[in-house]
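Two proteins follow. First one:
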Amino acid sequence: MAAYSVSKRMKELGIRVALGARRVQLMRAAVGRPVALLAAGSALGMVCGMLAARLMSQLVYEANPSDPLVLLGVVATMALLGCPDPGVLTVDCPTRLSFKHLICRSRVVRLRRGPVILKAMRFQTSLAVPIAVAALSLCVDARSFSQAAPSQSSSQSPSTVQNPTSQPSPSYISIDPLANVRYDNRFDVSLGMAYDHLKAGPNLLQGSNLGGLDLSASYWLTRRLALEGSGRGYLGTSGAAPNSFSINGPFIAQYLFAGGVEWLGPHNKHGALVAHVLGGGAYGQFEKDLRGHSPSVVGFYNNQIAPAVIMGGHFDLNRSPQWVFRITPDAVLTDYGINYGPNTKQIDINAAISVGVEYRFKKKR
């Protein structure tokens, strides 16, 4: 770049020589701007390199981006590549001037705009490249020698010490977040998003898809046996029997409260299978959105409290000794009835599932 810049300023430099510019002034005019740009770029690069030192130390193992020897080597290399040799730019003073020709030491050049000639040689970048590579090699070799010196001294120490102790090499330490999973907690609580497929009437062909919450808690008597209580609420709409009142998709709800036993099955630090059988009651709200009509119009059950049984279990995936990702599939048995027409009761088996988290308290048995 410096050679190209000088080649474009040949006429200007010739005028400077004609006006009596000395060698130092000519060198300053030729390479002053490239040197200034090189210095500014090198300073900015060093600042950016120092700011990125933390990132580099994390990406490269045992790297020291702020090593002054390396930084100085890079600056020296850029200087060698960007600047010409001081002896490259030469000016031969004329030995005899005339109005027609200017005779120089090397050749005779016809005058064009004045009795002055400037002879500038091309910058020898081919010489600067090997010098730059050598400078970088010296920096790397010096750095390697400084790092290898302690190892050589340690390798020579066994000749003088009878019982040498070798320095342990750095190693990565793996941390297992599930190492402390013991299944020895006394209490646990779980909360999840719940789904229930409910049949809202004894003869309805269309079921209802309800959503809600599932809150459960357990008290462990032994390592495998526990008492569990569960409260669940489901809300949604249901299909209805054809009617003359244009009641379509009325709102219904079901609330379950049950308790029973829980058994810890196969388990390890990654997860566990838990089975439970719970018994209790269910409150079905089927008449809220019927506009005052009898549930017989749409074929629904009456609002009532009925016996309920929950059979199923948990699939637990441990995320830590306390936190667990839990999936709970269940079969829900309810015994709802109707009080219109022939009073009948019917046991329905509905599918339910909940997905949530469990927390195990630290208090141990």
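Second one, unrelated to the first:
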Amino acid sequence: MNPFLVSLLANAVGLWVAARFVPGLLWQGTTAGLVGVAILFGLVNAFVRPEAQGQSGPRANLTLGLSTFAVNGLMLWLTGAVGGVLGLTFHVAGFLAACLGALVISLISTPLSVLARGRRARPGGSPPRDAEIEAPDRGHRPPDERERS
């Protein structure tokens, strides 16, 4: 299955679960509207999130990664704001609801994406184990014990 479609569907399921169980997230509409919100969420994450993470880079180290939750919450909050302008019936009531919603979406969509994509095996079977991988011959070999003395 196309990786874009997998992540789109996983985000749609994550958004639905978050809107259903997180107070402050509201979605009312059709399945097509939810897919529209998932597309918007994907676009916001693709284009705005890298810049936001770049701006919060030094703070991410100081806060031991907790600023990532804030960035994810801001992306969900932005999705709700832009979705309201576009007529999508998805609303985020505040920053705390956005952060909790982003956490729920991540917890739902990440495993779904991994399960849907599956493990990609190499053509010809399973990948070799580390012990089966041979080092390339570089034209020399380590000296034998008898040659050292």
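SUMMARY FIELD: The two ends are 61 Å apart (CA to CA). The mean pLDDT is 79.
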